[in-house]
């Protein structure tokens, strides 16, 4: 226990005022035997420190920067001095496609999301060509991607799109991030996978072999173009793969539609799909992440889906995961309804009936002497400003002033259109006590008494065409249709 002689009055005052008090190591002694009263230093991660001339280099993740920026820069500098042959150009494109599939079909859909099962030969192949894409090991990549799905658009998301396009595209890899701020996710299945463990342990060798040595050897032994194979099929091909797959983190969260959900940033766009070997239908993917498909329409571009399907036909893949069509259409309908609700909310549907004042029928008669009021289906409407605009003429609408015009409005004189009912709803000002002055309205309400009102996504009743409060479906009076 600390004795009273060791209590500092300044500390007591600080505690009383609610201020933080630095901890002191009172037990540690200097060489001369005196107490050491220096406060403990709290180490601040470099990512939380400002950039300065003295520390800017400490902010950089030099391993990632070397792979995704410095090496490509060297390749672009060398390209003007190395002839690009047609065979090398074709090989670079083919290998771009193969290593790209290593990420999309391998790292992403197989290892990160387990959207299908693969035989050992296919898993090894995807681990090798995925390593040739130069985007880290399966374990590292999948861990970050699962975290992204779990904490999308939050500070725990390693490539949070809300921090800017360039941050989500490349910045999160170039600059060091505080590991304590990153979200955690379960990768026990990856750790238990021997293919993943071996590739992770020897990733640097996999990277060098599959990114640079293999494409160079193919071009060199195949048609004698060693330099072209190294520069174009190796360095620059890897750069294109990087920029292509990085678009899944950036472009796929910035452009396109959100047909399934708009609470988060992922979007669907055909341009992103072409840039990412089919990963561009990202809104669908974030809603149904374990579906082996990214594009669900036959005409949508998704070569990764076709690759996985082909592997199944060859017996190399199985257990292809898909969400039910019912679940997919539920998402589509709900999002469309949400958009309709936003549109509906901008329109004037009139004062809700339950918010209208209740008056007696005699009050309605008296007030009709000072302004043009019409009673339809128990609801009082002020048509003063509409009398001169009435398509049927002043005489017809004037004849209903101060009277119950339910039967007349619903076919007695004219069976008014849906638009007329909607327009009339914007003119309502009150309801008659009981609201059942006309027998035909009583019958219409009795027929609907067991029908539950349909509500929108925020709980407001949806007013369907033909269900307006002033409409009487079975008025019992024949009339001319609108």
If you had to describe this structure to a student in words, what would you say it looks like?
There is one protein chain. A hairpin with a 2-residue loop joins strand 4 (373-376) and strand 5. It contains 19 helices and 6 strands. The chain starts with 8 loop residues before the first helix and ends in a 35-residue tail after the last helix. The chain folds into 2 domains: 56-336, no CATH class; 353-447, Flavocytochrome B2, Chain A, domain 1 (Roll). The chain has helices at 9-17, 62-78, 86-112, 120-131, 138-150, 165-174, 188-191, 194-201, 203-223, 226-246, 270-275, 282-287, 303-313, 325-345, 361-367, 394-398, 406-409, 418-425, 439-447; strands spanning 117-118, 317-318, 358-359, 373-376, 379-382, 428-432. By secondary structure, the protein is mainly α. Strands 3-6-5-4 form a 4-stranded mixed sheet. The protein has a two-stranded antiparallel sheet with strand order 1-2. Belongs to the fatty acid desaturase type 1 family.
């Amino acid at each position: 226990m600390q004795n009273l002689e060791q209590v500092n009055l300044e500390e007591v005052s600080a505690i009383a005022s609610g201020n933080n008090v630095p901890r002191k190591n009172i037990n540690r002694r200097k060489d001369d035997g005196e107490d050491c009263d220096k406060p403990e230093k709290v180490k601040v991660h470099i990512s939380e420190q400002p950039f300065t001339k003295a520390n800017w280099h400490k902010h950089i993740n030099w391993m990632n920067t070397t792979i995704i920026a410095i090496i490509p820069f060297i390749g672009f500098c060398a390209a003007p001095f190395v002839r690009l042959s047609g065979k090398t150009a074709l090989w670079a494109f083919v290998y771009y496609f193969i290593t790209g599939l290593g990420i999309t079909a391998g790292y992403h859909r197989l290892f990160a999301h387990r959207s299908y099962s693969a035989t050992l030969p296919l898993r090894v192949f995807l681990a090798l060509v995925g390593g040739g894409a130069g985007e880290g090991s399966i374990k590292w990549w999948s861990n970050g991607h699962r975290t992204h799905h779990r904490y999308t658009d939050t500070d725990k998301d390693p490539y949070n799109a809300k921090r800017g396009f360039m941050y989500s595209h490349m910045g999160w890899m170039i600059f060091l991030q505080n590991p304590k701020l990153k979200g955690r996710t379960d990768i026990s299945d990856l750790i238990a996978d021997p293919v993943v463990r071996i590739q992770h342990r020897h990733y640097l060798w996999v990277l060098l072999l599959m990114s640079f040595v293999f494409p160079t050897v193919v071009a060199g032994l195949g048609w004698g173009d060693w330099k072209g194979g190294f520069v174009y099929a190796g360095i620059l091909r890897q750069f294109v793969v990087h920029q292509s797959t990085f678009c899944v983190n950036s472009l796929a969260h910035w452009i396109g539609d959100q047909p399934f959900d708009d609470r988060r940033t992922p979007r669907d766009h055909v341009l992103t799909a072409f840039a990412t070997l089919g990963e561009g239908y990202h809104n669908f993917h974030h809603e149904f992440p374990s579906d082996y498909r990214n594009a669900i329409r036959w005409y949508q571009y998704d070569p990764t889906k076709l690759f996985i399907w082909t592997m199944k036909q060859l017996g190399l893949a199985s257990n292809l995961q898909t969400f039910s069509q019912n679940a997919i259409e539920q998402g589509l309908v709900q999002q469309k309804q949400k958009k309709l609700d936003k549109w509906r909310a901008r329109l004037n549907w009139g004062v809700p009936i339950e918010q209208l004042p209740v008056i007696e029928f005699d009050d309605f008669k008296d007030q009709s002497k000072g302004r043009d009021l019409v009673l339809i289906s128990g609801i009082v409407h002020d048509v003063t400003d509409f009398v001169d605009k009435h398509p049927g003429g002043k005489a017809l609408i004037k004849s209903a002033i101060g009277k119950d015009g339910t039967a007349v409005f619903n076919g007695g004189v004219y069976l008014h259109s849906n638009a007329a009912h909607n327009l009339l709803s914007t003119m309502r000002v009150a309801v008659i006590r009981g609201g059942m002055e006309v027998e035909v309205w009583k019958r219409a309400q009795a027929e609907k008494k067991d029908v539950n009102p349909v509500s929108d996504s925020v709980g407001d009743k949806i007013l369907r065409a033909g269900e307006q409060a002033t409409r009487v479906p079975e008025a019992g009076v024949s009339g001319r249709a609108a």
